[in-house]
Amino acid sequence: MREQFRQELKDLKIEVLSIGRAVTARTRDSVSSLVTGDVDLAQSVVDGDEEIDRRTQSVEERALEVIATQFPVARDLRLLHSLTYIALHLERMADLAVNIARAAKRTAGRRGPQTLYDLIQAQGNLVYRVLEATCEALETNDLELARKLQDLDEPIDHLYKQFFRELARLHDEEDIEWASSMVLASRYLERIADNAVDIGERIAYLITGDFDALQPIDEETD
Predict the structure, then answer these.
(1) CA 13, CA 82: separation in Å to the nearest integer?
(2) CA separation for the pair 166, 194 (Å, rounded)
(3) Residue 43, Cα to own-chain centre: how many angstroms?
(4) Gyration radius of the chain over CA positions
(5) pLDDT tens for each residue of 98-136
(6) What residues contact 153, with CB distance under 8 A and at least 6 apart?
(7) Where do the domains of the chain lie, and which CATH numbers do they carry?
(8) Residues 24, 135 contacting (CB under 8 angstroms)
(9) How far apart are CA 199 and CA 186, in angstroms?
(10) Residues 38/89, Cβ–Cβ less than 8 Å
């Protein structure tokens, strides 16, 4: 019975990691569809959202079943609660990727200034790095990497702010309408990264059992 319990915990973690990598791939596709104007790719991101919803809901249901039947304690209970928490954030991130894909469909009919496409792509590249680091931290129980997610998130925030400076340079009403969709897409990317940082905090708690574990190393006291 305990061997089955351990396997269930392992399988749940593997599934959450798989969902995390799927969300990373969908985020890449959504940004690519926006930058290239690929409506078919954007639609594939939208169409795939139900699968992510189903999988994250299944994680929650399976975790609750294990808690109800196996009465886990200590680290095992933290793991189950944390996997449910992480799955919820991954679902939100997938929804944000869908929003970017919908922005791609709205803007596919015209091309705006290349500068904004370049900013979106640069921001996307940074977001992919955060998502990949998040999955790695969860897979390897890497506390130091979980702590670094906040630092990785900062340049993404800076690029989002830069969008408004670029938007102020546009004068044509059509350009402003187009840029508004791009700014929203940039905001969605920022929110994806913010959710990844939240997951990093939960990973730190999972590893240490301490909700304050995500403080920088040089600020810790004995």
Answers:
(1) 10
(2) 23
(3) 19
(4) 19
(5) 999 999 999 988 888 888 899 999 999 999 999 999 999
(6) 130, 193, 194, 196, 197
(7) 2-219 (1.20.58.220)
(8) yes
(9) 20
(10) no
